[in-house]
Amino acid sequence: MKLQGKTAFITGSTSGxxxxxxxxxxxxxxxxxxxxxxxxxxxxxxxxxxxxxTGVKVIYVPADMSLPAEIHAAVHECEKQxxxxxxxxxxxxxxxxxxxHTFPNEMWDMVIATNLNSAFHTTKAALPGMKERKWGRIIxxxxxxxxxxxxxxxxxxxxxxxxxxxxxxxxxEVAEEGITCNAICPGYVWTPLVEKQIPDQxxxxxxxxxxxxxxxxxxxxxxxxxxxxxxxxxxxxxLSSDLAASITGTxxxxxxxxxxx
Length: 261
Ligand code: NAD
Description:
With 261 residues, the chain is α/β, with parallel strands linked by helices. It folds into two domains: 7-187 and 227-253, NAD(P)-binding Rossmann-like Domain (Rossmann fold, 3-Layer(aba) Sandwich); 190-225, no CATH class. It has eight helices and seven strands; from the N terminus they run βαβαβαβαβαβαααβ. Nicotinamide-adenine-dinucleotide (NAD) is lined by residues 12-18, 35-37, 64-66, 91-94, 114-115, 141, 143, 186, 188-189, 191-194.
């Protein structure tokens, strides 16, 4: 167990990559706080199931990651219930696919708030405790779209590039304090977020579902395979371990070779 005694708050972790990372951390003995906007029967059951499967403490902390006050309250709630927050995984994210000239202003604001501003606020709230204990890991789930762009995803690409910048800045500010900050940049991973954007991509590109998957999504992914949530979990575990103490300020692609183009 590489992470026995550690605690983690993973934002947006009731599905997809967030849940994959939470599961991987928990399997290594790390107590975890799951998060999504609201509390439901399903979120309570999910936390109980993960706790039963892994034997670690699993809590669920509802908070809307587009709202700074809720984010700060959530980090403090994790500190209260878990005793401390050693690892922050900024994973909550949304997508909107539309050309810039018709992109709704409120969607721009919502994507930037959820995908970028949230990482600033969790980091700001968690850093005092990490600095006090001289140990911390901040893992920002950016994207291959944090390194390269695609059309019709202006807000998402801007937010993810911003997240890579925030990662570097955070890493430099806390480099001498036992705290690292890195970005994971996934290519396409088969999750609800990807599944949900297929209808919009079909409209934007005027293509069938099969063509969107083959000619848009996996076109740039040389392996021609979706990456997996387990692969994201494995990297998050390594970045959280003491062996990764010298890895900081990086943006690591897990994209089947996409950004090697
Ligand atoms: P997903 O839709 O399965 O998960 C997103 C999570 O964020 C969900 O748990 C959702 O409840 C949560 N969320 C959304 N808005 C929220 C809010 N306002 N407050 C709290 N939680 C909120 O999607 P995913 O594919 O697992 O994406 C997770 C992250 O990985 C995102 O940041 C996404 O941009 C990034 N990413 C995904 C892919 C991919 O191909 N799936 C590729 C690159 C990057």
